[in-house]
Amino acid sequence: MKYLINTTYLSDSQKRMENVELSSSCPCCGVSLFPDLLYAVCVDHDDTEEDIVYTFNHCQNCDECFISKHPFDEENGDGFIYASSSPVKSCEQNFSEAITSLSPDFVSIYTQAALAESLGLDQICGIGYRKAIEFLVKDYTIHKSPNSKDAILKATLGACISNYIKDDRLTTLARAATWLGNDETHYVRQHPDYTLKELKAFADAFITFIDADLAYEAALKLVTP
Ligand SMILES: [Zn+2]
């Protein structure tokens, strides 16, 4: 979502109101927030599509300041989209103890993908998210069907999702996240209308469902005599 902000143009020092998508998290502490906007400047060019807005932001959580880069939104032409922030000091992801214990490799890979995204490495972070999903699916399905461990390890990710995840909602989310993840790794995109945003949204929903299932298992253990 873009917000109308007062932006100083570099070429003539004039201020204009511009629609800018702000950073949704702080690169210093990793906390999701709506930053305090301190200053915005547009480095403008003859071709407006080459214009880039830079914002100077303050984080209420860690009290540090950071810079964000917002190139022109070529797709919609209605302002500037968020691209990256710096300095990147933290990409800690808040996964539950249950998820961390189920799949430490998933947590490590997902965190590295998030770091790549924070650094603006948009060509490779999707591949990292795709790999993270694979590790989580494999570790989760082995956890649910320990007797099938060897078959799960050998199965493709698609087969693993189809054959070993029982809940339709989980299957759908895992499949959608995997399809979009595959688009990040291949030359031709099969789903060009979807972006990294949807990939992360599906992956995050999948993680939330697994978290809930692990909490359910723990509760069941407590109440079952
Ligand atoms: Zn912060």
UniProtKB/TrEMBL annotation:
This is DUF4145 domain-containing protein. It comes from Coprococcus comes.
